[in-house]
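input
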Amino acid sequence: MRKYCAVMFLFLISGSSLWSQNNYKVANIGFYNLENLFDTLDTPGKLDEEFLPTGAKLYNSDTYKKKLTNLAGVISRLGTKYSPDGIAILGVSEVENRKVLEDLIAQPALAERHFGIVHYESPDFRGIDVGLIYQPRYFKVLNSRPVEMPIYKEDSVKVRTRDILYVTGLFGEDTIHILVNHWPSRRGGETATEPLRIRAAAICRGIKDSLVRLNVNAKVIVMGDLNDDPSSKSMVSTLSAKGKTAKVGTNDMFNPMYTFYEKGIGTTAYRDAWSLFDQIVLSPGWLQPSDGGYHFYKANVFNEKDITQLTGKFKGYPLRTYSGDQFINGFSDHFPVFITLISKI
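output
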């Protein structure tokens, strides 16, 4: 751990100039809830009527194009403080289908990065899924699959929610494992719905544990809109996600978002209360420097002023696409998050 701290200090005093000095390789991995990134077509079996030209929001081609432009602009800036290539891997949620991701990465702000896509249709009742975009120069997909969340309400009715997206790939010289999540919401009350998120966390924990049993240094990331805070039972007890690296044991995970939460910094707001639902949680393998491999440097909440509501009732909130049914040309009701990783050359 002493060697790790020394490397971290060197990077801190040198700042983002390290990549230009060829001392370190730098990469960023993030997550962004894209808030209802629907196309304008009526898809049978999906509750997408709200996001159609005939719907209450009058969601048409012009609206869709503006939303794509706005989101692409944000994504293009993630991590550029640390690497000119920006975000290497980005998990996303609230996307209707693969086509909207294809349209997103084709935007001028992102096209030159040649993002690839991993996406599967999920059984969510609203028709929204999770997905992953990545720069092939950083990440090569080896395998991917959707992981079903067999969770039920008290009346034994199955919850039609998002699958977990499990992606394995080569990241530099490491094989890494990414679980992209959008856990069940708190609709119906936080306490009443808590067991659903605990079940989702248990599924992630099971996958992580199986990987760590095979390789104690396995590099696993659990990311997503978890609809729970870092202090929630699903995180602290089920995932055993610690906020301090010194407390992370072999069977635990490290939650770098905990520090932001303790400072009152969130990623989404409701009724003047901030929540930090968007999280990136790491297995211990990410915490120790290794020859040729990336390891954790810092976490980031991208809450820049230009993607924030600056006036009115929701001043300080993320600037979303709609206020009720009124289009306000925003971005998302969530701020994106990302982690910066370094690898000494």
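quick obs: DSSP finds eight helices and 17 strands in the chain.
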